[in-house]
Amino acid sequence: MSHRQAQVLKRELQAVERQRDRDVAELDEFAQAHKEARADASRRSLARELGVTHPVITAMIERAKKDAYPTDSTPLVPVLSAYQATEYVRSGAFGQVTGALVAMSETDILLESGRHPKVFADGTRIAAPNTLLRNAEGELLGVEECLAGYGGTGPSNSLRLLRDLGWDEEVAREVFRHRFVEFDMERGVIRSSPDTLHHCGGNLEFTGGHLVARLRRGRAWDPYDRTPANDPLRLRTWVEEILSQPEKHPWAAGPRVARVYLNRDTAVGLQDRIRFRPGVRNSPFSVVIEQGELQLWCSAIYPSDWAELLSQEQLDVLAAADMYPAEVEPRGWLDRFLPRRRERPDYIDISTDGTGALRHEPDGTELDGETFEGA
Asked: Region Disordered: which residues (predicted)?
């Protein structure tokens, strides 16, 4: 069993446990409201029924009270090894394979799949495979360690997989010539690109019912290990590839709102454990851009002068997200978002009409701490 398969089973188990806690809490609430039901639905009777102790029932009820998010029933896309996927298809369980996406970048698979990113959840991380098979019913099957590119083990694995599934070898060899290829079983290659299609980097996480991407200066996302000088956070790329195309990415559809933190203590929940490497700045996440189910946490230093509300880095982040008109003097423009009493707030929510606010409170407690290879 692969790590990803174990994560699927773990997620299903957690969903069952959360639903059990809610059912127990609902029965307890019913017993409290109806005397005639107390004999059958009391905490002690529930404990006997489930074969646990009374304190365990109490703990279930307390967990249910704190569980603010609905159980997510969205099925994950199963991801198998190349051998397992081939055997699974040959068994007839997946049906007839009609197409495949193969890419060097996981982000290309994620954004070209047409599915909500959470179907690729691996714990709190969103991790799409590099190969995605599709059947006649539109169902998807991911395959590990099968990539597109220029030589190497990954494309060789893809060649064998595609050949075993019925594609001609000459058609399948296109995985060596391109970084993204879309195959059709009848028409062969229907789309290809010598470069990756998307450059925002993906790096998505899913927690509390919404998506989070943490953007930090100095972090390189593209295959060439480069970060453009004019877009150090890759924020403009996110805006162009995701936020500006809500019809293609409905999970990022909705009004755009920015929150800029003025108080370090208020933003402490956004910070993470991080190991350092040269060129990576530990600037705090002080700006959050939200649109639809997506939040972009952007690193930007606070102003060194207390008299200034926002630092230049924070203003640059807002400008990159099309949330701040660069030709306007900052203080006068910010007045419309400040409380009337003129005290310094912990944060400012910025929107087109001046009344918008974040739909999801940013919370990094469930997210994995950031780490960097080679640190």
From this structure: 349-375
Q: How far apart are the first and last CA of the chain?
A: 30
How far is 83 from 94, CA to CA, in rounded Å? 14
- At residue 373 the predicted structure's pLDDT band, cuts being 50, 70 and 90, is very low
Summarize the confidence of residues 71-94 as an average pLDDT: 88
Is 70 exceeded by the pLDDT of residue 327? no
Please tell me the distance from the alpha carbon of residue 247 to that of residue 18, in angstroms, as a whole number: 33
SS (H, E, C) 167-223: CCHHHHHHHHCCCEEEEECCCEEEEEECCCCCCCCCCEEEECCEEEEEECCCCCCCC
Query: pTM for this structure?
Result: 0.76
Q: Tell me the one-letter amino acid at 365.
A: T
With a cut of 70, say whether residue 345 has pLDDT above it: yes
Looking only at the bridges linking them, the beta strands covering 256-261 and 347-350 are antiparallel
Look at the block and give the residue holding tokens 């017993």: 31
86 by Cβ neighbours in 10 Å (0-12 / 13-18 / 19+) ranks as middle
Dig out the tokens for 4 from the structure. Answer: 């990803």
Residue 2 pLDDT: 59
The pLDDT score that the predictor gives to residue 206 is 86
